[in-house]
Write a structure and sequence with these properties.
- It contains eight helices and seven strands.
- With 241 residues, it is an alpha/beta fold.
- It has a seven-stranded mixed β-sheet with strand order 3-2-1-4-6-5-7, sandwiched between helices.
- Helix 5 packs parallel to helix 8 and helix 7 packs parallel to helix 8.
- The radius of gyration is 17 Å and the shape is globular.
- The N and C termini lie close together (7 Å).
Amino acid sequence: MQLSILMPVYNEEERVAEAVKQALEVDYPCEIEIVVVDDGSTDGTARVLDGVDDARLRVVTHPRNAGKGAAIRTAVASARGEYMVILDADLEYDPQDIPKLLAPVLDGSATVVYGNRTFGSHSAYSFWYVVGNRGVTTAANMLFNSYIGDLETCFKLMPVELYRSLDIRSRGFGMEAEVTAKLLRRQIRPYDVPITYRARGRDEGKKITWRDGVQALWILGRERARRRPAVIPAATSLSKR
Protein backbone atom coordinates (compact mmCIF):
# COMPACT_ATOMS: atom_id res chain seq x y z
CA MET A 1 0.00 0.00 0.00
CA GLN A 2 1.11 3.57 -0.56
CA LEU A 3 0.81 6.86 1.33
CA SER A 4 0.69 10.07 -0.70
CA ILE A 5 2.30 13.02 1.10
CA LEU A 6 0.84 16.18 -0.43
CA MET A 7 2.93 19.35 -0.16
CA PRO A 8 1.50 22.70 -1.35
CA VAL A 9 4.30 25.23 -1.93
CA TYR A 10 4.20 28.96 -2.57
CA ASN A 11 7.38 31.05 -2.49
CA GLU A 12 9.28 28.73 -0.14
CA GLU A 13 12.69 28.91 -1.86
CA GLU A 14 14.53 28.99 1.46
CA ARG A 15 12.70 26.04 3.06
CA VAL A 16 11.32 23.68 0.44
CA ALA A 17 14.56 21.70 -0.10
CA GLU A 18 14.87 21.00 3.62
CA ALA A 19 11.14 20.21 3.89
CA VAL A 20 11.38 17.62 1.12
CA LYS A 21 14.65 16.22 2.50
CA GLN A 22 13.13 15.75 5.96
CA ALA A 23 10.05 14.05 4.52
CA LEU A 24 12.13 11.65 2.43
CA GLU A 25 14.34 10.67 5.38
CA VAL A 26 11.50 9.37 7.58
CA ASP A 27 11.29 5.61 8.20
CA TYR A 28 7.69 4.99 7.11
CA PRO A 29 5.77 1.74 7.76
CA CYS A 30 4.53 1.73 4.15
CA GLU A 31 5.53 2.87 0.67
CA ILE A 32 5.24 6.62 0.05
CA GLU A 33 5.22 9.24 -2.66
CA ILE A 34 5.54 12.99 -2.25
CA VAL A 35 3.42 15.14 -4.54
CA VAL A 36 4.56 18.76 -4.48
CA VAL A 37 2.35 21.40 -6.04
CA ASP A 38 4.26 24.59 -6.81
CA ASP A 39 1.35 27.03 -6.53
CA GLY A 40 2.59 29.74 -8.87
CA SER A 41 5.76 30.62 -6.94
CA THR A 42 7.56 33.72 -8.18
CA ASP A 43 10.86 33.14 -6.35
CA GLY A 44 13.36 30.32 -6.89
CA THR A 45 11.12 27.52 -5.60
CA ALA A 46 10.82 25.82 -9.02
CA ARG A 47 14.61 25.85 -9.47
CA VAL A 48 15.14 24.29 -6.04
CA LEU A 49 12.60 21.54 -6.73
CA ASP A 50 14.24 20.80 -10.08
CA GLY A 51 17.42 19.98 -8.16
CA VAL A 52 15.83 17.23 -6.04
CA ASP A 53 16.55 13.80 -7.49
CA ASP A 54 14.35 11.11 -5.92
CA ALA A 55 11.94 8.73 -7.65
CA ARG A 56 9.43 9.17 -4.82
CA LEU A 57 9.01 12.88 -5.61
CA ARG A 58 6.67 14.32 -8.24
CA VAL A 59 6.17 18.04 -8.87
CA VAL A 60 3.06 19.62 -10.37
CA THR A 61 3.06 23.33 -11.22
CA HIS A 62 0.27 25.91 -11.20
CA PRO A 63 0.90 28.75 -13.68
CA ARG A 64 -0.33 31.27 -11.08
CA ASN A 65 -1.08 31.25 -7.36
CA ALA A 66 -4.49 29.73 -6.63
CA GLY A 67 -4.37 29.08 -2.86
CA LYS A 68 -3.73 26.13 -0.56
CA GLY A 69 -7.11 24.50 -1.15
CA ALA A 70 -6.61 24.60 -4.91
CA ALA A 71 -3.08 23.21 -4.58
CA ILE A 72 -4.30 20.29 -2.47
CA ARG A 73 -7.09 19.64 -4.96
CA THR A 74 -4.48 19.35 -7.72
CA ALA A 75 -2.28 17.09 -5.58
CA VAL A 76 -5.18 14.80 -4.67
CA ALA A 77 -6.17 14.49 -8.33
CA SER A 78 -2.73 13.08 -9.18
CA ALA A 79 -2.16 11.09 -5.97
CA ARG A 80 -1.47 7.38 -6.51
CA GLY A 81 -1.64 6.25 -2.89
CA GLU A 82 -4.57 4.77 -1.00
CA TYR A 83 -4.06 7.20 1.89
CA MET A 84 -2.95 10.83 1.93
CA VAL A 85 -1.58 13.32 4.42
CA ILE A 86 -0.92 17.02 3.95
CA LEU A 87 2.52 18.42 4.84
CA ASP A 88 3.27 22.12 4.42
CA ALA A 89 6.73 23.15 3.23
CA ASP A 90 7.25 25.80 5.89
CA LEU A 91 9.04 23.49 8.41
CA GLU A 92 6.42 24.16 11.11
CA TYR A 93 5.50 20.46 11.16
CA ASP A 94 7.84 17.53 11.70
CA PRO A 95 7.39 14.70 9.15
CA GLN A 96 8.79 12.33 11.79
CA ASP A 97 5.28 12.53 13.31
CA ILE A 98 3.65 11.00 10.22
CA PRO A 99 4.25 7.37 11.32
CA LYS A 100 2.43 8.28 14.56
CA LEU A 101 -0.55 9.40 12.48
CA LEU A 102 -0.45 6.12 10.56
CA ALA A 103 -0.37 3.95 13.70
CA PRO A 104 -4.12 4.10 14.55
CA VAL A 105 -4.95 3.36 10.91
CA LEU A 106 -2.59 0.41 10.77
CA ASP A 107 -4.04 -1.14 13.91
CA GLY A 108 -7.63 -0.59 12.79
CA SER A 109 -8.50 2.07 15.37
CA ALA A 110 -9.21 4.91 12.94
CA THR A 111 -9.86 5.92 9.35
CA VAL A 112 -9.18 9.66 9.65
CA VAL A 113 -6.38 11.00 11.87
CA TYR A 114 -5.56 14.62 12.78
CA GLY A 115 -2.28 15.81 14.25
CA ASN A 116 -3.16 17.84 17.35
CA ARG A 117 -0.80 20.74 18.07
CA THR A 118 -0.26 21.35 21.78
CA PHE A 119 0.66 25.01 21.68
CA GLY A 120 3.36 26.13 24.12
CA SER A 121 5.48 29.24 24.54
CA HIS A 122 8.12 27.80 22.22
CA SER A 123 5.69 26.75 19.49
CA ALA A 124 2.94 29.38 19.30
CA TYR A 125 3.12 32.22 16.77
CA SER A 126 1.19 34.61 19.02
CA PHE A 127 -1.48 34.71 21.72
CA TRP A 128 -4.17 35.76 19.23
CA TYR A 129 -3.17 33.08 16.76
CA VAL A 130 -3.70 30.37 19.39
CA VAL A 131 -6.94 31.93 20.66
CA GLY A 132 -8.26 32.22 17.09
CA ASN A 133 -7.39 28.60 16.34
CA ARG A 134 -9.08 27.39 19.51
CA GLY A 135 -12.10 29.59 18.82
CA VAL A 136 -12.63 28.09 15.36
CA THR A 137 -12.13 24.57 16.75
CA THR A 138 -14.62 25.24 19.56
CA ALA A 139 -17.16 26.54 17.04
CA ALA A 140 -16.87 23.31 15.04
CA ASN A 141 -17.30 21.22 18.18
CA MET A 142 -20.42 23.15 19.19
CA LEU A 143 -22.00 23.10 15.73
CA PHE A 144 -21.40 19.40 15.13
CA ASN A 145 -21.54 18.14 18.75
CA SER A 146 -18.03 16.77 18.47
CA TYR A 147 -14.79 17.08 20.40
CA ILE A 148 -11.79 17.51 18.14
CA GLY A 149 -8.63 19.20 19.32
CA ASP A 150 -7.24 21.15 16.36
CA LEU A 151 -9.35 21.97 13.30
CA GLU A 152 -6.70 24.05 11.55
CA THR A 153 -3.93 21.46 11.76
CA CYS A 154 -2.10 20.78 8.51
CA PHE A 155 -1.68 17.09 9.42
CA LYS A 156 -4.92 15.55 8.15
CA LEU A 157 -4.54 11.88 7.19
CA MET A 158 -7.36 9.98 5.45
CA PRO A 159 -8.15 7.74 2.47
CA VAL A 160 -7.57 9.52 -0.85
CA GLU A 161 -10.99 8.47 -2.13
CA LEU A 162 -12.66 9.89 0.96
CA TYR A 163 -11.01 13.27 0.41
CA ARG A 164 -12.03 13.23 -3.25
CA SER A 165 -15.62 12.49 -2.28
CA LEU A 166 -15.71 15.56 0.00
CA ASP A 167 -15.45 17.78 -3.10
CA ILE A 168 -13.55 20.58 -1.34
CA ARG A 169 -14.18 23.88 -3.12
CA SER A 170 -12.35 26.37 -0.89
CA ARG A 171 -9.29 27.62 -2.73
CA GLY A 172 -7.45 29.11 0.22
CA PHE A 173 -6.99 28.29 3.92
CA GLY A 174 -10.74 27.83 4.22
CA MET A 175 -10.19 24.28 3.02
CA GLU A 176 -9.20 23.30 6.58
CA ALA A 177 -12.65 24.21 7.93
CA GLU A 178 -14.44 22.76 4.91
CA VAL A 179 -12.68 19.39 5.19
CA THR A 180 -13.43 19.12 8.91
CA ALA A 181 -17.03 20.28 8.59
CA LYS A 182 -17.78 17.82 5.81
CA LEU A 183 -16.23 14.96 7.77
CA LEU A 184 -18.20 15.83 10.90
CA ARG A 185 -21.39 16.26 8.86
CA ARG A 186 -20.91 12.66 7.73
CA GLN A 187 -20.39 11.71 11.38
CA ILE A 188 -16.74 10.84 10.74
CA ARG A 189 -14.81 11.86 13.85
CA PRO A 190 -11.06 12.38 13.34
CA TYR A 191 -8.75 10.51 15.71
CA ASP A 192 -6.42 12.98 17.46
CA VAL A 193 -2.68 12.29 17.80
CA PRO A 194 -0.39 14.80 19.59
CA ILE A 195 2.33 16.23 17.35
CA THR A 196 5.25 18.62 17.63
CA TYR A 197 4.94 22.10 16.15
CA ARG A 198 7.02 25.25 15.75
CA ALA A 199 5.17 28.25 14.37
CA ARG A 200 7.02 30.79 12.28
CA GLY A 201 6.28 34.52 12.34
CA ARG A 202 5.24 37.08 9.74
CA ASP A 203 8.85 37.96 9.05
CA GLU A 204 9.47 34.30 8.17
CA GLY A 205 6.60 34.20 5.69
CA LYS A 206 3.55 33.10 7.71
CA LYS A 207 0.53 33.76 5.51
CA ILE A 208 -2.64 32.99 7.49
CA THR A 209 -4.51 36.03 8.91
CA TRP A 210 -7.58 36.82 11.03
CA ARG A 211 -9.62 37.01 7.83
CA ASP A 212 -9.04 33.29 7.33
CA GLY A 213 -10.51 32.69 10.80
CA VAL A 214 -13.65 34.65 9.92
CA GLN A 215 -13.96 32.71 6.68
CA ALA A 216 -13.55 29.42 8.58
CA LEU A 217 -16.46 30.31 10.88
CA TRP A 218 -18.64 31.14 7.88
CA ILE A 219 -17.77 27.84 6.18
CA LEU A 220 -18.55 25.87 9.35
CA GLY A 221 -21.98 27.50 9.59
CA ARG A 222 -22.69 26.92 5.92
CA GLU A 223 -21.79 23.24 6.08
CA ARG A 224 -23.76 22.70 9.30
CA ALA A 225 -26.88 23.99 7.57
CA ARG A 226 -26.58 21.49 4.73
CA ARG A 227 -28.17 18.06 4.74
CA ARG A 228 -25.91 15.13 5.54
CA PRO A 229 -25.08 13.04 2.41
CA ALA A 230 -27.14 9.88 2.05
CA VAL A 231 -24.23 7.83 0.73
CA ILE A 232 -20.91 7.63 2.54
CA PRO A 233 -18.02 5.94 0.66
CA ALA A 234 -16.44 2.94 2.31
CA ALA A 235 -13.07 3.55 3.99
CA THR A 236 -9.90 2.15 2.56
CA SER A 237 -7.62 0.10 4.81
CA LEU A 238 -3.87 0.59 4.88
CA SER A 239 -1.75 -2.44 5.68
CA LYS A 240 1.91 -2.81 6.59
CA ARG A 241 4.47 -3.87 4.07
